[in-house]
Amino acid sequence: MTALSYVSDEADSAWATYLAQVERVLPYLGDLTRWADTLRHPKRALIVDIPLEMDDGSVRHFEGYRVQHNLSRGPGKGGVRFHPDVTLEEVMALSAWMTIKSAVLNLPFGGAKGGVRVDPRELSIKELERLTRRYTSEIGNIIGPQQDIPAPDVGTNAQVMAWMMDTYSMNVGATTTGVVTGKPVHLGGSLGRVKATGRGVFVTGMAAAQRIGLEIKACRVAVQGFGNVGSVSAELFYQRGAKIVAIQDHSGSLYREEGIDIPALLTWQREHGSIAGFTQAENIRHEAFWLKSFDILIPAALEGQITEARASALSCKLVLEGANGPTLPAADDILRKRQITVVPDVICNAGGVTVSYFEWVQDFSSFFWTEEEINQRLDSIMNDALIAVWNKAESLNVTLRTAAYAVACERILMARKDRGLYP
Q1: DSSP per residue over 157-170, as a string?
Q2: Is the pLDDT of residue 35 over 70?
């Protein structure tokens, strides 16, 4: 294996976590291991400078990235993250996980990801628009509806995607709705896209719970991260009768033994911008969240949240990875020894990329489906993927994560093998 000169040797970095996950699947790939270095080397990594004129007339510079990890099975697909802690290595890992995710779901995409080192909450709406448009122009030569299709991620939303689509369209001289997904519905977006990732967590969670004998109505659920993914999955489990007993976001941690009123919390969050100060639950210390008693944990924040110490302390029976890379490899080993089932991120949170695929297809055909049709197709694809991975895990006697990588890497490396090397 040839090491990359531009990555650190930090053991717990997102990229190191991804590489460790790849290493674990190699014994199950047979002759395809000849091509395994393909998985360790991003195809393309672009770093751009984004000069931005602020509202006060000053000029600030922001660092942006777009990484295309692998395009063997189709154009790149992956979100754009606006966050002050974004790094090239993080974006590389996220793009690699998108490669795996698309292959597990058997979608005709490769993996890509983008990011800008910025706190969007500190920008005015006009500054955010100017930042988005300049970033889009800087990466415009490597994105496109048949090259690489961005989507929303942490710190971005449908409005950001609308600006990206418009900027790209102006630069190429034609309205090109298929260049991004996650757009507003009236600009070629898909019904069901906003809740798709959280719905995918719920769908795979329900299927996994049934397989291990958990009755949802008797389950206590904890959700770490209450953004789009965490809030939607919490709402769906709440509607199905589960008790959401613990919730944590960047602003604080809540606990209520009898279960938190999710509709009331969502209303509070819309009015106050966070869950902090919610009066209908106990405010607890950050680390105390991990020590509470619950049956299902949904980590839906950022990567690297389930450490060895937290894995050793968890009381749950099932972990549903709503975030990308929330479990460190050493923690994975502890969870397996403790017989805690983990539905890995590359399946669990793949509802977003699945409905993004639907949106991309609808934009090409200019024919749009109902939300009911979208949800039916999403549920079917995700259930089929989970069954395939579960069967693979049982046949190989490995975790669901290693099984998911086995399924995905076989598809990715077979494509690489059959396409050959050019020139």
Answers
A1: -HHHHHHHHHHHHH
A2: yes
